[in-house]
């Protein structure tokens, strides 16, 4: 600790990697592409989980747990989905190791324990879950079926980065079945809205809601809703997706229901998920050159108290005040840590808490005891002030609220100032190069043009945004007619 | 639903399997030996998780997440542990599938995507975690390190049973590191005590705390503490274990710390875990021939309200009363479901809620409206009574408490009446055969005798119980001296 980070304007990518490790969020493991989520990072993830879980349950979803491994034959059943994930899946072929006679103390695969059918570690669980839904759904009485799963999944990515792209990651995946197309579409939209509200209100991350183009859709979906956030380096990050799966999986797994009228039909489906990738979005939305900046809603502790003392007597006196403050704050449901470690000096502690993004820091020294004050430092603005101990709880309550709102406002201001409308391909490239951010432009609606732009500029269509008016225009590449602008960006 | 279960005295094993499925707790999946935990079962597991997680955090543990896959070379590092798990582990050998040219639409393993080193799906995470702890621990300042992980693990069991023994299961695994042997031993004991208290106070399952014999210990442990419960069929079930790992893993992974005195030493370790197996213990401790019986602490909903009506008008009037009761109960933190489905009749609902073990059922019919009463049925005793609506909330509060206590008392009485002291091998076999339960007997302390008894009777030493006095005696098999009775039983 105490070592500074690479500055963002020097090397944003290096800054990110260093921050994740130095703030004790996560680190690379000895397994290629897989991360270890450290306790501090994990406790932020737990807060994300708890809030989302509450929202899922409030909207009538139930949690369940399905197996980690998917038999190859099930995986193959929905063709597009299989195609989309086959090239990056971990395959279990054997179920036993044995002693390696040639290398004492070593083990090797026991070829006598080869599986008859290979098993895939789930990259996503549609195949397995729909094969199960087949048995759970007979009649309209069984619908809607609204299930969520918190789980680990695995995609064998070649280039990995902590939180943003890892071979194994944690996520939730919702899977629902409905009697009508309309109801399934509404569910997919509802969950995208829940994600958006969660991102904005809870994580203080502004997002744009929209639809993916066909080439950017989830493999197996008829429509993919998404929320797109903008990182400080001008690159977009897909923060959550919600898919309308049509009847694709119902047909692949023969899932039919009998209606009130006695007729049979395939059910309609959705799936939706967010992952530990949100941790990456969180970091890159709010943090600065001094380290992590956390919205109070997500802080493992919102306030830290650091005592400053020269002898045992002082420490005892300060402790008494600190413990009282701690109790008063906890009574108001404010989480607080009294950092009374005698193994580290105050300066070291300050640096650590700054790196870890604790929203508010209270320092109490001998002079504060005399004056009845404390020093209060705000992590996001780095402002310090002296506050009367008497008013402290109220001050902290309002500051925490202020920080939560101000982080969102700041990020929104940045995001909004980085949506650029362009009408020519030349301006498109120039903007992408010099400013980054979202570029709002007309597109002719073809996969070919989308592909050409991607190949030439690395920018992809992040989404066809909701809530924007139609507007007649011409595709920036082909000049063909277009009736709506879409949002392009380079993306994580 | 509505179909009855096989009776316990007919076929206990069949009763269990049917109950798990009919109460909607879990079912077998299309993956050999792996289960799907259904929403109702999972919500019980969530309650187990929440309570344990709180207890872990209160005692200074932090959650983290480590990778699912363990490189073979790491897995090999602690020899006994590797030996203990090598024969039943799922092995990932490839990271890609490709199209099978011979079978259009099918996929096959891509031999060009063979891993250089095989990866094992974690059967337990000591190897991976200790390889990580190596980087986290340098000085006494980093200790104690007290980590817990909620995760899925996999052991390729040949004979599986829902919850009791499945290839994949969910669990928590605690892993701690300490400066002294004493502190590590205290931690291992503390966690075993926490498990015991949780089992008894929260799950209403009486347990016996003790130590495992050397042959029953966790592979890699110097000492294994355990809690042992007794099922209704007289078989024991190991409900949780807490291991003192000595310096075995510290040595295998070279994890040393520098003390205050500047000297280096290996750290001392513990690990401890409980799993979805607890669901099996729960079912087999309390349930009856009508289905699941749940202690109120673990019930997804503690009270269900079933309306009984012949027309819309009646339904509207009953609904109003039911909604008020629901609100009043929720205010007292009692979870309640108003089963207002119009797709099922009251009798069907009664049967379902009985099968699913809802502790209290309220039925409200037209006569109840007139009289200002409701019918209250208790799941554990099947007693019914009419209660004034006015007193309902108080009655329910006290009934729930009563049920929680009475389930424990009943199970304790059964357990205590099934601990039999025997002094001859003949009596041992006779008791095991006719009565089952725990058999308290003298044993000469050798693995040979233990093995002989196991081979001849299928009974194992469940534990060397804590809190029992020493007593001079003679081994029931060899007649050699013994100074303490140990507990034998057939076990799940």
From TrEMBL, chains A, B:
EC number(s) on file: 6.1.1.15
Keywords (A to Z) from UniProt: Aminoacyl-tRNA synthetase, ATP-binding, Cytoplasm, Ligase, Nucleotide-binding, Protein biosynthesis
Entries under CDD domains matching the protein: ProRS_anticodon_zinc (cd00862), ProRS_core_arch_euk (cd00778)
InterPro entries xrefs: aa-tRNA-synt_IIb, aa-tRNA-synth_II, aa-tRNA-synth_II/BPL/LPL, Anticodon-bd, Anticodon-bd_dom_sf, Pro-tRNA-ligase_IIa_arc-type, Pro-tRNA_ligase_II_C, Pro-tRNA_synth_II
Any one GO MF annotation of this record: proline-tRNA ligase activity
Transmembrane segments: none
Location in or out of the cell: Cytoplasm
SUPFAM superfamilies: C-terminal domain of ProRS, Class II aaRS ABD-related, Class II aaRS and biotin synthetases
Any one Gene Ontology BP term: prolyl-tRNA aminoacylation
Aminoacyl-transfer RNA synthetases class-II family profile domain span: 27-295
GO cellular component: a single term: aminoacyl-tRNA synthetase multienzyme complex
Enzyme class per UniProt: ligase
Cell inner membrane as UniProt keyword: no
Reactions catalysed according to its record: tRNA(Pro) + L-proline + ATP = L-prolyl-tRNA(Pro) + AMP + diphosphate
Recorded domain comment: Consists of three domains: the N-terminal catalytic domain, the anticodon-binding domain and the C-terminal extension.
Protein function: Catalyzes the attachment of proline to tRNA(Pro) in a two-step reaction: proline is first activated by ATP to form Pro-AMP and then transferred to the acceptor end of tRNA(Pro).
Complex formation: Homodimer.
Name the record gives this protein: Proline--tRNA ligase
Organism: Psychroflexus halocasei
């Amino acid at each position: 600790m105490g070592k500074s980070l690479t500055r963002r304007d020097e090397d944003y990518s290096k800054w990110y990697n260093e921050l994740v490790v130095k703030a004790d969020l996560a680190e690379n493991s000895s397994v290629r592409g897989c991360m270890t989520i450290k306790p501090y990072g994990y406790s932020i993830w737990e807060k994300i989980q708890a809030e989302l879980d509450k929202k899922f349950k409030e909207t009538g979803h139930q949690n369940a747990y399905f197996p980690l491994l998917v038999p190859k034959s099930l995986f193959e059943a929905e063709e597009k989905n299989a195609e989309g994930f086959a090239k990056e899946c971990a395959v279990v072929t054997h179920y036993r190791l044995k002693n390696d006679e040639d290398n004492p103390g070593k083990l090797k695969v026991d070829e006598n324990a080869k599986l008859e059918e290979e098993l895939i570690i789930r990259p996503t669980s549609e195949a397995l879950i729909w094969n199960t839904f087949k048995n759970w759904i007979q009649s309209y009485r069984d619908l809607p079926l609204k299930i969520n799963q918190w789980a680990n999944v695995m995609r064998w990515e070649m280039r990995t980065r902590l939180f943003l792209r890892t071979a194994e990651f944690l996520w939730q995946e919702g899977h629902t079945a409905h009697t009508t197309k309309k109801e399934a579409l509404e569910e997919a939209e509802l969950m995208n809205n829940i994600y958006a509200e969660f991102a904005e209100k809870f994580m203080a991350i502004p997002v744009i809601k929209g639809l993916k183009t066909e080439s950017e859709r989830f493999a197996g979906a008829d429509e993919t809703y998404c929320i797109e956030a903008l990182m400080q380096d001008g690159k977009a990050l897909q923060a959550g997706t919600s898919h309308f799966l049509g009847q694709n999986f119902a047909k692949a797994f023969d899932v039919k229901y009998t209606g009130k009228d006695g007729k049979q039909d395939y059910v309609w489906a959705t799936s939706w998920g967010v992952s530990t990738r949100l941790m990456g979005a969180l970091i890159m939305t709010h943090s600065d050159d001094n380290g992590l900046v956390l919205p109070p809603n997500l802080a493992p502790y919102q306030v830290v108290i650091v005592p400053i003392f020269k002898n045992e007597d002082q420490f005892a006196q300060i402790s008494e005040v600190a413990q009282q403050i701690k109790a008063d704050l906890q009574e108001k449901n404010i989480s607080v840590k009294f950092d009374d470690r005698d193994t580290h000096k105050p300066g070291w502690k300050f640096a650590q808490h700054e790196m870890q993004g604790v929203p508010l820091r209270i320092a109490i020294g001998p002079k504060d005891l005399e004056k009845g004050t404390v020093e209060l430092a705000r992590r996001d603005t780095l402002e310090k002030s002296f506050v009367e101990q008497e008013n402290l709880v109220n001050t902290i309550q309002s500051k925490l609220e202020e920080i939560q709102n101000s982080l969102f406002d700041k990020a929104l201001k940045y995001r909004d100032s980085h949506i650029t409308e362009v009408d020519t391909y030349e301006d498109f490239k120039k903007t992408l190069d010099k400013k980054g951010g979202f570029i709002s432009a007309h597109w002719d609606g073809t996969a070919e043009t989308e592909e050409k732009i991607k190949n030439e500029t690395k920018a992809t269509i992040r989404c066809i945004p909701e809530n924007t008016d139609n507007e007649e225009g011409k595709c920036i590449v082909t000049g063909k007619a277009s009736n709506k602008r879409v949002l392009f960006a380079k993306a994580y």
